[in-house]
Amino acid sequence: MILRNILTAASALALAACAVGPNYAEPKSASAPVATGPFVSANSPAVSLAPVAGDWWRLYDDPVLDGLVADALASNTDVRVAVANIARARASLRGARADRLPQGEIGAGANYGRSPEGQRLPNADREDWAVDVGLNVSYEVDLFGRVSRSIEAARGDTAAAEANADAVRVIVAADTTQAYADAASGAARLDVARRIVGLLDQQVKLTQRRKDVGMATGLDLARITTLRDQRSADIPSIEAERQAALFRLATLTGRAPAALPAIAGDRNISLEITDPIPVGDGAALLKRRPDIRAAERRLAADTARIGVATADLYPRITLGGSAGSTGSGFGDVFGGGPIRWLLGPLLNWAFPNQEPARARIAAAEADTQASLAEFDGTVLRALEETETALSSYARSLEQRQALRAARDQSERAARIVRAKREEGASESFEWLDAERTFAEAEATLAEQDGQISRRQIALFRALAGGWSS
């Protein structure tokens, strides 16, 4: 009967309940009208308007890279932290939802003591046990939406944590691909550097022979030897950069450097996609970027917290009941001894001084305005990053085309000067300058190939592919 009365009263009050505070509406960025169209910089033949692939790294058609990215998404420490944050947010959401249910508490205690003589019947034992057992049940009537708004805020926090984890996955997939690309580019640059040194070694030997027969001077030999040694000095630096990329790759995949599979460093060709890269449009970008989703969900949570703070302006009503028994032993308590019970509502209301509650409302409103500004800023940064990546990629391709033409011309010039030198019709300065120019052009082109890989990966990172794989 007691429980039925509590539930009947709670149901009646719940029907009359209303959630105070503003209802959340999905924000529209100030740049939305122009942000959802085609990208300004997507006018290069190197990109297409096809939808972005979630597992974009598979476009490189490299099974080793596919395995490394899968390892990183499963074992990277940053991903594990992000997953733990999701679990924490979900636990908070469960706690908020639990406030909708009646809260129960069972208490029991026993003590042995001596009572004053005046509190005992004549000839009664003054020393004995006192045992008390009680049950308390309470239920907060969510008349003004404090509990429902708290749940709404916790739900927004959970969705934001999930979006943050997706953002971490985007970064991890891009960083893993970048580290693998840097290692491959380093190996390719090493091959070029060693080939250049090999060619210069041949020139050193040829100059030595010409000097021996009086057709070259010691200065000629010293100059070509210096150029050879300068290019040899590049090799240790490139090797160190390549090793650093492999060590970074091990960390990203959750391994110690010694545990990285040897196959991860076998590639010696720069990583590159030769087909047009699918980039989609602005509307798809805004839906796909997890940092935008996280900012929007934080805004939703902060909006709900205005309602939580506003509810403190109104009375908080709790329905409660308790029952218990006290006796001189457990037999008295559970053997049909006297039972006590209480039933009634409890009202808490901070009145008339409501300034603390109004201050909390003002703070919550300020937090919401800050979250809205953060959302707008996140949208603008996403567009900026994507447009910058598109432009940089297109310009890098143009730069490589020019560098490739320069390399071809310098190689042709070096061959001509070598032939002239064999015939004794070339000045030593002309010959040395041709060799130096060719060596620099070859090395610069190899570096630019690695730069193309970095530009492609930066573009995929800005497009936020990878989190849904």
From TrEMBL:
One of its GO terms (molecular function) is efflux transmembrane transporter activity. It is found in: Cell membrane. One of its GO terms (cellular component) is plasma membrane. Pfam families: OEP. InterPro entries: MdtP/NodT-like, OMP_efflux. NCBIfam families: outer_NodT. This is RND efflux system outer membrane lipoprotein. It comes from Sphingopyxis fribergensis.
